[in-house]
């Protein structure tokens, strides 16, 4: 049965209007930021996020707490576990690795997701339950009971490469890594090798590994053999070779360079291939989205020169790509900049679209 795909942007919207009593399940590969995004979203709203790694629990007592005798009523009760709320403040309970949990752990989860209760104790009103699971033959997983699955709103979480690049630009990921993924988005989450044909221990790229590659590159003054080996141990030899070939051929024209002085870099732009220009289009939108464009009048004037260059120099497909990004509204702040700070650019875009 098909499962709806959602991006980070979609997820934020879904979290906004989904009632707290609904449970949410995110399906996706490891390393794509499920827990990080959920934690960041709710902590920004002032809610505590408690993450339970169910795959690491060996006994229901790890989840519900340990039994003890209540001297007042001469009955066995369960002491609340360390994570259980001690007041009425609602929390976000993030059940990670749900389909790695032992069957006896999953039985305990059933009451939790249905009744918001654990060993007779209720979660505070307004608390949310969100789970994350991996899906694929490469994982060692536990089959989930359909009765448990039916208690969740289920989404296949697929963050786009563009969303990762925006995150990377905000969080100080090395520019060489950003440039490489900008040109090779298919290498963000894998390298195309068949998992059955390579060792299960062979490293392959994912979003976590690119962050670690950035950490390595930032620490070295030059790309030595040792540095290359260190990176190959993170993303694998084939991808590492492509990355270092890209770094060796660097000297590319950046969005900041275009927006600060288009005329100065015109000759370099004329030598660029179409796929490099479309990557530059995306970079310009990210630059505007993050407010890195510098002086507003200078950047708006240079952006108009760039758009006219695309239109009048046999690069109309690249101009159409720039317009498609605008129409897709993936970069809200960048679009706002164009509409309010660069009206001549907006007019040029509208005229181009009308004449298609």
TrEMBL record:
InterPro entries according to UniProt: ATPase_dyneun-rel_AAA, P-loop_NTPase
Q: Where is the ATPase dynein-related AAA domain?
A: 23-152
In this record, what's one Pfam family? AAA_5
Tell me a Gene Ontology molecular-function term this record carries. ATP binding
Official protein name in the record: AAA family ATPase
Species of origin: Candidatus Cryptobacteroides faecigallinarum
């Amino acid at each position: 049965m098909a499962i709806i795909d959602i991006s980070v942007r979609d997820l934020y919207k879904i979290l906004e209007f989904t009632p707290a009593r609904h449970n949410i399940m995110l399906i996706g590969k490891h390393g794509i930021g499920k827990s990080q995004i959920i934690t960041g979203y709710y902590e920004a709203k002032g809610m505590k996020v408690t993450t339970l790694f169910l795959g690491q629990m060996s006994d229901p007592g790890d989840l519900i707490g340990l039994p003890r005798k209540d001297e007042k009523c001469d009955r066995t009760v369960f002491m609340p576990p360390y994570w259980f709320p001690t007041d009425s403040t609602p929390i976000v309970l993030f059940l990670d690795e749900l389909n790695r949990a032992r069957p006896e752990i999953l039985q305990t989860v059933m009451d939790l997701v249905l009744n918001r209760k654990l060993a007779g104790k209720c979660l505070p009103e307004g608390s949310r339950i969100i789970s994350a699971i991996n899906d694929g033959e490469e994982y060692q997983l536990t089959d989930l009971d359909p009765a448990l699955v039916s208690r969740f709103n289920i989404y296949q979480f697929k963050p786009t490469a563009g969303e990762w690049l925006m995150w990377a630009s905000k969080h100080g990921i090395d520019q060489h890594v950003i440039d490489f993924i900008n040109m090779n988005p298919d290498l963000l989450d894998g390298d195309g090798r068949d998992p059955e044909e390579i060792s299960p221990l062979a490293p392959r790229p994912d979003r976590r590994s690119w962050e670690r590659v950035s950490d390595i590159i930032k620490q070295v003054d030059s790309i030595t053999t040792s540095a290359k080996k260190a990176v190959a141990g993170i993303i694998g030899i084939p991808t590492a070779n492509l990355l270092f070939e890209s770094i060796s051929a660097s000297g590319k024209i950046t969005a900041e360079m275009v927006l600060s002085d288009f005329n100065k870099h015109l000759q370099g732009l004329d030598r660029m291939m179409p796929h490099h220009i479309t990557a530059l289009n995306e970079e310009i939108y990210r630059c505007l989205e993050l407010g890195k464009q510098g002086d507003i009048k200078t950047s708006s004037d240079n952006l108009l020169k760039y758009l006219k260059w695309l239109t009048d120099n046999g690069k109309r497909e690249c101009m159409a790509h720039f317009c498609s990004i605008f129409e897709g509204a993936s970069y809200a702040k960048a679009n706002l900049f164009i509409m309010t700070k660069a009206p001549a650019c907006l007019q040029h875009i509208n005229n181009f679209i009308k004449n298609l």
